[in-house]
Design brief:
The complex is a heterodimer. Chain A contains 13 helices and 14 strands. Chain A is α/β, with parallel strands linked by helices. In chain A, the strands form three sheets. In chain A, strands 3-2-4-5-7-6-12 form a seven-stranded mixed sheet, sandwiched between helices. Chain A has a five-stranded mixed sheet with strand order 9-11-10-13-14, with helices on both faces. A two-stranded antiparallel ribbon of chain A has the order 1-8. By secondary structure, chain B is of the alpha/beta class.
Chain lengths: ~325, ~325
């Protein structure tokens, strides 16, 4: 067991999967000679060569399509989109081809591609580099969406995604690449479906994923320390398909729910989780669930405005107090 | 090409024409739904190219005007018609329809309905071929209007940069939906547009199947020989509108008349008759035989096949064959 950073865990998963299967390739902008903007592919170009660790032109939709086409014939591409904001450009190939080709070919063709991309608001990156797109991807039938919140999950999800026969979108986060965590020395495969119970509690469930899981954990500390509220924290690391049973199980234990996400509320993860609660365990509720989301604005540049636009642990504490009837 | 080859081409093109005309009727009879994009007039393009390639061996991909391409690769016309009828016996099990025919067994890798989408997919298949080390090539058929998509330029850049074994065949039928090429495209000659990528290209009369075949042989040999991509522009004309919902009112009648004198089937037929290889009666006999096959075998099969079972609505969304096996080999 070794502590490593999120980017190191991602790099290790790439390295192992490239070594394991000669049909695995990595492609994206600067993934080769440079070693990846977030170092996720550092050193792999020298180890595996330009035919397998491929620097692409800045042509997101088409190089994603090249990866998808290659996957039709047995290649296992890991496609990096440098920022999720650029994934909008590749949305045609992801949504119209990768996600649909298995269905519309009656099962003859599948696109076993892995598409990795960091999203979210980092430090004053401005509107066009701060998007959160997970809610867009999770609405596409035929596409799996996962979003690691720890180095272990990042490592295990990439390894599982490479060996999965479905297209998988992996949503990372710019602010998490230096996050440290334990990763076992041996191989580990995180299931592509499910959720993780990170902290047990009897009073309220805090649902989060990716960076918002960390806000939930901070909020749970504050709630326990300052308010005597025992919050359960559930990591919905698999966004599509979502763990309906896991969501219902937790709400059935705590009877209250707060859902935290970094994105805007409309048609978001929180909206979906609330719908699942409504459909699966409505009569277990002691209070109406509450969403904690971004404000509905393009993410601003100015530090004060950016901070005001993005939620955090304090917002989750307030929401938890509300559902627990403390305010 | 010897006489037997030319006769075979004539039959294949005539079969394609009659097949498409029967599709038109079936659509009017409401037995085919959705959108229907017909290929009549362009038969020499795919047949000339595939005669130079290896059907069932080389990988072929195209856009939504895909019926004849699928059949040229070896797809069973019965299953193609059944797909248009929305039946479980269709090439895509009724999940694809006219614009999404697939026959992977014969390496027909699909029809795709987003204009320009197949350009990068073809390059990706070529990348896979290169990695596997086979002697197949990827062939991508698309219309002239697709060349105005960003994917065209983005992909040709990568295909040339990486010397991928891919042949791009532009079926230039002069119209993008209802807009004539000179009203949508700054450079009307499509083969000139690839010179910026250093890709060899040729412009050929797409109505003369023998010329198409000869040019395609040069192109296929170039690509198969490992020299990188090639671009072939075939000048052709579709007889019907863009789709069945297109009244075709935007085209001048004298333009349509001019192209009707250059019908690819008639050109080859008259050449064979002129060479003494067949008579007009032989041709009529062939036509009757084709029409009977389409009606009695193909339409009958499509008509009598069952629809996909509703209980299997969600089949094929995700890989459900247990092949996802984290931790195991694949």
């Amino acid at each position: 067991m070794a502590a490593m950073m999120y980017w190191e865990a991602i790099r290790r998963a790439h390295d192992e999967e490239l070594a394991n299967d000669p049909m695995v390739i990595v492609m994206g902008e600067d993934v080769g000679v440079v070693g990846g903007t977030y170092k996720a592919t550092q050193g792999l170009y020298d180890k595996y060569g330009p035919e397998r660790v491929i620097d692409t032109p800045i042509s997101e939709n088409s190089y994603t399509g090249v990866g998808i086409g290659a996957s039709f014939l047995g290649v296992r591409p890991i496609i990096e989109l440098m920022s999720v904001n650029f994934a909008w450009l590749a949305l045609d190939q992801i949504a119209n081809t990768a996600a649909k080709v298995r269905y519309m070919s009656g099962g003859q063709l599948t696109a076993p591609v892995v598409i990795r991309s960091p999203g979210g608001s980092a430090h004053q990156l401005g509107s066009q580099h701060s998007a959160r797109m997970e809610k867009v991807f999770m609405g596409i039938a035929g596409l799996r969406v996962v979003t690691p919140s720890s180095p272990l999950q990042a490592y295990g999800l990439i390894k599982s995604a490479v060996r999965c026969n479905d297209p998988v979108f992996i949503n990372e986060h710019e602010l998490m690449y230096n996050l440290k965590g334990e990763v076992p020395d041996g191989e580990y495969f995180q299931p592509l479906e499910g959720s993780e119970l990170l902290r047990e509690g009897r009073d309220v469930t805090l649902f989060g994923y990716n960076i918002s899981v960390h806000w939930c954990l901070q909020a749970a500390d504050v709630l326990a320390r300052e308010h005597g509220i025992e919050a359960e924290v559930v990591d919905l690391y698999a966004l599509s398909p979502l763990d309906r049973a896991g969501i219902a199980r937790s709400v059935t234990r705590t009877h209250r729910a707060v859902i935290a996400e970094e994105a805007e509320p409309v048609v978001g993860v929180g909206a979906e989780v609330m719908a699942i609660i409504n459909e699966t365990c409505f009569f277990e509720l002691d209070a109406a669930p509450v969403r904690v989301c971004a404000r509905t604005v393009p993410v601003p540049y100015a530090r004060t405005l950016e901070k005001a636009a993005i939620p955090g642990a304090a917002d989750i504490v307030r929401a938890a107090l509300q559902v627990c009837g403390r305010r | 090409m010897d006489i037997a080859d030319r006769k075979r081409l004539l039959r294949d093109m005539l079969f394609a024409r009659r097949f498409e005309e029967r599709c038109y009727e079936a659509y009017v009879e409401r037995r085919i739904g959705g959108f229907l994009h017909l290929y009549s007039g362009q038969e020499a393009c795919v047949h000339g190219v595939m005669k130079a390639a290896r059907p069932g061996h080389d990988y072929v991909i195209t856009g939504y005007r895909d019926h004849v391409h699928a059949i040229s690769c070896g797809a069973d016309p019965k299953a193609v018609m059944a797909e248009l009828f929305g039946k479980e016996t269709g090439v895509s099990k009724g999940r694809g329809g006219s614009m999404h025919l697939f026959d992977v067994e014969h390496r027909f890798m699909g029809g795709y309905a987003l204009v320009g989408g197949p350009f990068p997919l073809a390059a990706g298949m070529a990348k896979a071929i290169k990695m596997r080390g086979g002697d197949e090539i990827a062939i991508c058929f698309l219309g002239d209007a697709a060349n105005n998509q960003g994917t065209f330029h983005e992909t040709l850049n990568m295909a040339a940069l990486w010397k991928l074994p891919v042949l791009y065949v532009c079926e230039n039928n002069l119209y993008g939906i209802g807009t004539r090429i000179d009203r949508s495209t700054a450079v009307v000659d499509q083969y000139k547009r690839v010179c910026g990528y250093g890709i060899p290209a040729a412009q050929i009369d797409g109505q003369d199947v023998e010329q198409v075949h000869a040019a395609a042989q040069v192109a296929v040999d170039h690509v198969r020989g490992g020299a990188g991509p090639y671009f072939l522009e075939l000048l052709t004309y579709r007889y019907r509108g863009h789709s069945m919902s297109d009244s075709n009112a935007y085209r001048a009648k004298d333009e349509e008349r001019m192209w009707s004198t250059r019908d690819p089937i008639i050109l080859l037929r008259d050449r064979l008759i002129g060479a003494g290889a067949m008579t007009k009666d032989d041709y009529h006999g062939l036509d009757t035989e084709v029409l009977e096959e389409i009606e009695n075998v193909i339409i009958a099969y499509a008509e009598s096949s069952p629809p996909p079972p509703v209980e299997e609505l969600e089949k094929y969304v995700l890989a459900d064959d247990g092949s996802w096996n984290p931790g195991g080999a694949h």
